[in-house]
Amino acid sequence: MRVVVTIQHPGHVHFFKHAIEEMEGRGHEVYVFARENEVAVDLLEAYDIDHEVLAGESDSLLSLATVQATYEARLLRRARQVKPDVITAIGGVAAAHVATAVRARSVVFYDTEHASLITRLAYPFADVVCTPSCYRGDVGAKHRRYPGYHELAYLHPDRFEPDRSVRDTIDCDPSDPLVLARISSWGASHDVGQGGFESVRDVVERLENAGAHVVLTAEGDLPASLESNQLTTAPERLHDWLAAADLVVSEGATTAAEAAVLGTPAVYVNSQALGYTTELEAQYGLLFAFYDETRHARALEKAVSILEDDDTDWSARRAAMLDERIDVTTRIVTELETAGQERVSDRSPVVANPG
To answer: What is the pTM (predicted TM-score) of this model?
Structure first.
């Protein structure tokens, strides 16, 4: 069958990369169409995934609408040429719309309940909506739940073995705990009016005063005084750093969840809760979330307490989580092949029984 995979964010590359390889290995034709966003295209190139870029990067919410419209129009044109059986995406606004227009099946994966604009535009048109079992909300008969997280499509131990030696590339005393802090730009449509830490400088100072070596990965510009803390690494190596760190503090839910499934304790600081961050905290104790007006102070208190904690067996907590969760890539492939078989059956001619 013919499958179109659409990529609009770096996380989408990670999510689909193993499924693309497996689908091609099973003899399916896979076409990858991308919109430039942060380092998405860089990752496609790093993983040697054949792709076509259909639209550039937006620099504001206003320009995002224009870029998205351009991307969807070009995706429609290419889909009419490819004639896919299945179109898949995370979020899936363009994918669901285009699939409807070209009579392909659409399989949408998502895990962000508060992204209401995306869900309103995508879900009504999608044939299948796949979410983690902890997703808050019901999409109806088309809803498929699975026991896992997006991050286990690429960080499950069957898919990823971290290289913790990356720590040796920075000037960090081996006896000092390493903290990676992820700072968000708050530029996504579902981030409007939301926030995380009050001061990045205060985050670094508090953690350094606790004896940690702090490195930052930031979507926007950092204050000049913190530029020396900026982590310079190839985007495809970030997960090695998350595994090598002793603690991750993050305004982004994806980074926090990535750290958690790797067995690195994560402090998540954001004004919005998600089903998967809640479950990783309540059920497995791998993530600690702070949402209210006191989140800055309380999160830093928790971060310092984790650095001072020598008793918690984080690897045991990770093992307990992995015992109950699946390799999500396997589920991706199953959903795409099932949808593709349904589409192929629909377009096959009906042969009358000669008897």
So the answer is: 0.92
